[in-house]
Known about the structure:
By secondary structure, the protein is α+β, with helices and mostly antiparallel strands. The chain has eight helices and five strands; from the N terminus they run H-E-H-E-H-E-H-E-E-H-H-H-H. A five-stranded mixed sheet has the order 1-2-5-4-3, with helices on both faces.
Amino acid sequence: MERKISDRTILDNFVEDFCGIMEKYAPYIVCSGFVAIAHGRTRGTEDVDMIIEPITKTKFIELHKTLIRGGFQCIQSDNPDKLYIDYLTKGISIRYVWKNENFAPPEMEVKFAKDELDRMQIKERQKLPLTGLSVYFSSIESNIAFKEEYLGAEKDLEDALHLRIVYRDKLDEDKIKKIKREIILFRKSK
Length: 190
């Protein structure tokens, strides 16, 4: 099932381009729906979810400028101070698109890690060879746990099922159960 370069989509190229820049500034993970899509699930998405380790304002300004030079623009603002203070530090995500695309998909939704669960996912990040992409993802077990226990929409449950099928002989069910317990502790109890 490994994907070949010829199987690449616009979304794949967008994600690799963005992650190639992000890698120079902060540890990150790509998570949620794009993980299933990158593993061959056919469904539409308008955004790709990315969680990054919090960085200083100075470093974020450098990152933002590099993203702009790399052909991206932020939907919310061109002002990196505003993006950092009014969005990221308040737990609100920011969205980047390719320049001159009239804010059409795809979008990269970037947010700072907000709790121990996010930090654990970044710490355990991995490149997933079956995707054919050179980007860091949260673990398959984390994706399944979040989709089944926390998100729970029909598309999320279908994504989780798809990942369960693709990785049927490789999943650590104990890890999925542990992450689900942590989701209840850190996210659902608040």
